[in-house]
TrEMBL record:
This is Transcriptional regulator, HxlR family. Keywords: DNA-binding, Transcription, Transcription regulation. InterPro entries: HTH_HxlR, WH-like_DNA-bd_sf, WH_DNA-bd_sf. One of its GO terms (molecular function) is DNA binding. Gene3D superfamilies: Winged helix-like DNA-binding domain superfamily/Winged helix DNA-binding domain. It comes from the Bacteria. Pfam families: HxlR (PF01638). Residues 6-104 form the HTH hxlR-type domain.
Length: 122
């Protein structure tokens, strides 16, 4: 059994890396098909997206919903357990936006999709 020193290690093991947090963040707004996720995350390869989705599903963070129709339709959504990460992901987003403001003075200069969040309480 692997030993951890702090909970952050565990969290980063499950949702860390370049893509998982981004995938999860997009799923906080609702179900997404694979092609929708590819449009939202244009730099991810199909192979990497599939791998990350499988790992998140294996960890119980997301559900894969298969509709038995022609053509086949598959959607992904956060599980109830995965929904518990929403606050964590929003905190990551808020911190990143504050960091961009600190570094660049105005996050909208470097952040393509800049929602007007106010996370002063975070």
């Amino acid at each position: 059994m692997k030993k951890y020193r702090i909970g952050v290690e565990v969290t980063l093991e499950v949702i860390g890396g370049k893509w998982k947090s981004i995938i999860l963040y997009h799923l906080t707004t609702g179900k997404k098909r694979t092609n929708e996720l590819r449009r939202l995350i244009p730099d991810i390869t199909q192979k990497m997206l599939t791998q990350q989705l499988r790992e998140l599903e294996k960890d119980g963070i997301i559900h894969r919903i298969v509709y038995h129709e022609i053509p086949p339709k598959v959607e992904y959504e956060l599980s109830e357990y995965g929904l518990s990460l929403k606050t964590v992901l929003e905190s990551f987003c808020a911190w990143g936006e504050r960091h961009l403001d600190k570094v660049y003075g105005d996050r909208s200069a470097v952040l393509e999709d800049c929602p007007d969040y106010t996370y002063e309480h975070i």
